[in-house]
Amino acid sequence: MKRKLPADLLEKYFAGNCNEREKAEISSWYESFESDQDDVFNLSEDEREAFRILMWNSIGGHIKDAENDNIFQLPKVWSARFRSVIYWVTSSAAVLLLILFLVKHKVPSKNPVPENNEKVMVTNTTNAIRKIILSDSSMVWVSPKSTLTYLKVFDKQKREVTLTGEAFFEVTKDHQRPFSIYTGNIITKVWGTSFRIRSYQEDKTTKVDVVTGKVSVSVTGQNEKNTVLNAVGQTNDLNPGVMLLPNQEAVYDKQLDHLKKNNEVKDVSIDMWKKMSLSFNNTPIKEVFTVLNKSFHVHISSGDEKINSDYLKADFTNENLPAIMEILKKTLDVSYSVHGSEFVLESYR
Description:
Blueprint: H1 7-14, H2 20-31, H3 45-55, H4 63-67, H5 76-89, H6 93-103, E1 119-123, E2 130-133, E3 139-142, E4 147-151, E5 159-170, E6 179-183, E7 186-190, E8 194-199, E9 205-212, E10 215-219, E11 226-229, E12 235-238, E13 241-244, E14 249-253, E15 258-262, E16 276-284, H7 285-296, E17 299-301, H8 305-308, E18 311-319, H9 321-332, E19 334-339, E20 342-347
Parallel strand pairs: 5-6, 11-15, 17-20
Antiparallel strand pairs: 1-4, 2-3, 3-5, 4-5, 5-8, 6-7, 7-10, 8-9, 9-14, 10-13, 11-12, 14-15, 16-18, 19-20
Helix pairs in contact: 5-6
């Protein structure tokens, strides 16, 4: 008798949280169907292909999307035959989602776009960093005096935003839809990663600094021939742009129309976006500031004695500094203003 996959492993896969070893285990499990005389073997070639589509799309999180999509429908006669296969796998909640999906007789299509899809423009007029969550669950941390423009619901084939100013992006992985950021003449394209873009109108340069993943940076109008200066001043011809890895940056000179790649980010302010785990147990707030300053290479302070006499008990797990500051705002009932690497807290009390 064929072994069953653990329910929690399937649920992790449907949520998109499997590592490479777990993906390989699920792949091996699926391929084993092709060599045995079981329910899947008895399906027709078209039916088996449909089953493969079901298995290898993260359908658990897209039931609602399927209800609004009419691109591909499963014939009703297939429904009962597939149910017998899926009930055999496991009785987990993830498979119940599969069954519900089959009842709808549709293969889900990610992110249906409403007919009245609207463009959203957000300008951060505050002195703090503002977090925005996009329709694909990507997070954008918009700095003061910066503007982000995006569609309320991304298109099915692409994800595009426009930035003026500075923002840090944590892009949700989607290999079917690249994520593109337009900043003046610069196009930054990714599939899933985290990075900072700084491009204020008054700045002479546009900078892209990578924290995790890979980022492609190119200059509009230079697809035929992009002139790129590397870190030692050599000139290279790149088409269509430059690829950045973690702790690398691209610097675009607006006046010279040159894109330069540096193999190291020397601006320590990027460290505030690197995630860390920190724990405080009734720690005086001034000591908390000291730890945060040292960990993220910033300067956090407050001239308010109500804040400075406080204590903090908190566990920060895999958080960047702006996320920690958001938690401190709620925990201590404070606000903060940021200027570069300077953070100043003020009390509401």
